[in-house]
């Protein structure tokens, strides 16, 4: 049975879908009014006990599409897993668990447990012994609990395979099938996937019984009410640039997106040190801390929220007028989700994107995917910022003139003026200096622009953003045909785990992806050797992040990450590669690598956008 949903928002309500009153009350409290297309198409058959095969992108509302019918069928008095949700990453597992908890607010005795690699087994075992009704986990950790006997699926009613194509790309398809085989025969299965590659179709045909098929067409377009601009990073450091924008732009509240958890915290601290009311949210924060920070933003106690993609999902704050991409996202879907935090409910919004010269290919890919042009912006000059500072200084004086204690201080200053014979204007200047502190009142003037190029220097290609050749350099070759790999330079690193430690590519990629919050598709080739492994990672990773990653443990060992040397690259050894097969010379032997790194597995350096066939999410760090 197939159900292709319409693009228009359905006119039915959640009450029309047959959900119990406890769930309808929770949905009202969280502000949900009408079901999304996938919810309207999926909830009724799941309530009837049917299997469902859903094709839908992230952000279409599929979590509620399977969570609500599961909760409608839950027996809170039975302290045993009645539903199991498999998710590809720990971030998604936590997000889905939080959604269950939110929807089950009025179901007494309900418990949901996220289980994933990288977390101690002890709290997970304790929670399973106490009893939970829903388990949300990554495939590897779920298999571990099944092998230990700590996860009992004998009372399971529903199995959900969320983002199945991501689990396939991350190498979990065998684990997924192993879990399905351990479920009772009378369970119902809901399988959701953004794409339907052959292995996913085979799983659906093998294990789903006469499923209802739901296909939701996604659109990667941005709202017309959001003005999109980019600044080509040059000259100024990005921190100085964002400070100028925050001082010169008229905004109510702003979300700034950084690529890593460490990046959010560092940037928020530096902005706060410059007098900006900023705070960070990321995947390391517990739910209560996250909610407190967001409430401070809603109440006007914060003006800037620095966030990662994962932490900002589902965030809807009316005050947000600007979104600034401090680090460019690695895929177009993330960009659309990011800037969707502003311009909501028909309001005007502003989106600003920082683009380094190396990231111009990503900019073009975003423009192609969204079918909208992002216009270049002129960074506010030092004079613009200084004018704003003078204006704010005068506004503060005007506000203070009408303060309740103005009369008291006026008398004190008149006494001081008469006693010391100091003009009032000099007293006022001294007080202003006390208020300003050590922070300079004005920015120094910008340096003059560089002299124009000589006429004989011609652009390398007909492209507004193409780099020009320097003196003595060859002009770049004409662009190759469009390709799906993002325009990112790579460096090769050595980590101290290999075949003798029984490590797998998924263990390495999952650990790095989760700890660095770096999408797995941007981890290049993983070349496992006898006692060490070579991994390709994007250029320009902060030293602090590399130092942090060096202490991450894989297969029970710290990986001690460092840049690879020529000896590491060319050392003959038994090796297995993940991402690309080794090339061979004329004699059939493996051709040694050249110094300077690998061609990454998830993408290459050709311009033209992103590789849609590579993994998009972090992997299970088991």
Automatic annotation (TrEMBL):
It catalyses: ATP + H2O = ADP + phosphate + H(+). One of its GO terms (molecular function) is RNA strand annealing activity. Its EC number is 3.6.4.13. It comes from the Bacteria. GO terms for biological process: cellular response to cold; ribosomal large subunit assembly; RNA catabolic process. Pfam families: DbpA (PF03880), DEAD (PF00270), DeaD_dimer (PF25399), Helicase_C (PF00271). Keywords: ATP-binding, Cytoplasm, Helicase, Hydrolase, Nucleotide-binding, RNA-binding, Stress response. InterPro entries: CsdA_RRM, DbpA/CsdA_RNA-bd_dom, DEAD/DEAH_box_helicase_dom, DEAD/DEAH_RhlB, DEAD_box_RNA_helicases, DeaD_dimer, DEAD_helicase_DeaD, Helicase_ATP-bd. It is found in: Cytoplasm. Its main location: cytoplasm. It is an enzyme of class 3 (hydrolase). Residues 597-612 have a biased composition (Low complexity). A motif (Q motif) lies at residues 12-40. SUPFAM superfamilies: P-loop containing nucleoside triphosphate hydrolases (SSF52540). GO terms for cellular component: cytosol; ribosome. Residues 452-486, 574-590 have a biased composition (Basic and acidic residues). Residues 43-214 form the Helicase ATP-binding domain. Residues 438-489, 564-622 are annotated as: Disordered. Residues 12-40 form the DEAD-box RNA helicase Q domain. DEAD-box RNA helicase involved in various cellular processes at low temperature, including ribosome biogenesis, mRNA degradation and translation initiation. Belongs to the DEAD box helicase family. DeaD/CsdA subfamily. PANTHER family: ATP-DEPENDENT RNA HELICASE DEAD, DEAD-BOX ATP-DEPENDENT RNA HELICASE 47, MITOCHONDRIAL. This is ATP-dependent RNA helicase DeaD.
């Amino acid at each position: 049975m197939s159900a292709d949903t319409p693009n228009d928002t359905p006119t039915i309500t959640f009450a029309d879908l047959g959900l119990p009153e406890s769930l309808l009350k929770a949905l009202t409290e969280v502000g949900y009014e009408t079901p999304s297309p996938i919810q309207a198409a999926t909830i009724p058959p799941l309530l009837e006990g049917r299997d469902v095969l859903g094709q839908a992108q992230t952000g279409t509302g599929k979590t509620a599409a399977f969570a609500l019918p599961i909760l409608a069928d839950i027996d809170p008095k039975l302290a045993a897993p009645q539903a199991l949700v498999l998710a590809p990453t720990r971030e998604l597992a936590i997000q889905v668990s939080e959604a269950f908890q939110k929807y089950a607010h009025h179901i007494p005795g309900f418990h949901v447990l996220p289980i994933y690699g990288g977390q101690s087994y002890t709290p997970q075992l304790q929670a399973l012994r106490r009893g939970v009704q829903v388990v949300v986990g990554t495939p590897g950790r779920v298999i571990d609990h099944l092998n230990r006997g700590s996860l009992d699926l004998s009372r399971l009613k529903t199995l959900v395979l969320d983002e199945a194509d991501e689990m396939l790309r991350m190498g979990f398809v065998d684990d997924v099938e192993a879990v399905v085989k351990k479920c009772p025969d009378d369970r119902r299965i809901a399988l959701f996937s953004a794409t339907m590659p052959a292995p996913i179709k085979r799983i659906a045909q093998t294990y789903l019984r006469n499923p209802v098929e739901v296909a939701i067409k996604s659109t990667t377009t941005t709202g017309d009410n959001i003005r999109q601009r980019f600044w080509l990073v040059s000259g100024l450091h990005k921190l100085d640039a964002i400070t100028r924008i925050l001082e010169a732009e008229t905004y109510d509240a702003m979300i700034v997106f950084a690529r890593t958890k460490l990046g959010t915290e560092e940037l928020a601290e530096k902005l706060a040190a410059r007098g900006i009311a900023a705070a960070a949210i990321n995947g390391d924060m517990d739910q209560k801390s996250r909610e407190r920070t967001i409430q401070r933003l809603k109440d006007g106690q914060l003006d800037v929220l620095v966030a990662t993609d994962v932490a900002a999902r589902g965030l809807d704050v009316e005050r947000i007028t600007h979104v600034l991409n401090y680090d460019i996202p690695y895929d177009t879907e993330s960009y659309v989700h990011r800037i969707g935090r502003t311009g909501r409910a028909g309001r005007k919004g502003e989106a600003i994107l920082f683009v380094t010269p190396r990231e111009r290919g990503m900019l073009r890919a975003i423009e192609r995917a969204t079918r909208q042009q992002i216009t270049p912006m002129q960074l506010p000059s030092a004079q613009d910022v200084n004018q704003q500072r003078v204006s704010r200084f005068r506004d503060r004086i005007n506000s203070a003139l009408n303060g309740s204690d103005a009369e008291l201080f006026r008398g004190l200053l008149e006494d001081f003026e008469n006693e010391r014979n100091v003009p009032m204007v000099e007293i006022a200047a001294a007080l202003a200096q006390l208020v300003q502190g050590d922070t300079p009142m004005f920015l120094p003037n910008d340096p003059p622009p560089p002299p124009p190029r000589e006429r004989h220097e011609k652009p390398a290609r007909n492209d507004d953003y193409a780099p020009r050749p320097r003196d003595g350099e060859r002009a770049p070759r004409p662009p190759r045909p469009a390709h799906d790999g993002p325009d990112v330079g790579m460096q090769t690193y050595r980590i101290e785990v290999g075949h003798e430690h029984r490590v797998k590519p998924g263990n390495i990629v999952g650990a790095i992806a989760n700890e660095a919050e770096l999408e797995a598709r941007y981890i290049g080739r993983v070349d496992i050797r006898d006692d060490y492994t070579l991994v390709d990672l994007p250029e320009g990773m902060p030293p602090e992040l590399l130092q942090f990653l060096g202490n991450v443990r894989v297969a029970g060992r710290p990986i001690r990450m460092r840049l690879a040397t020529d000896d590491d690259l060319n050392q003959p050894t038994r090796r297995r590669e993940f991402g690309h097969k080794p090339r061979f010379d004329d004699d059939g032997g493996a051709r040694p690598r050249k110094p300077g790194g690998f061609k990454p597995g998830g993408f290459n350096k050709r311009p033209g956008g992103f590789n849609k066939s590579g993994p998009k999410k972090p992997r299970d760090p088991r």
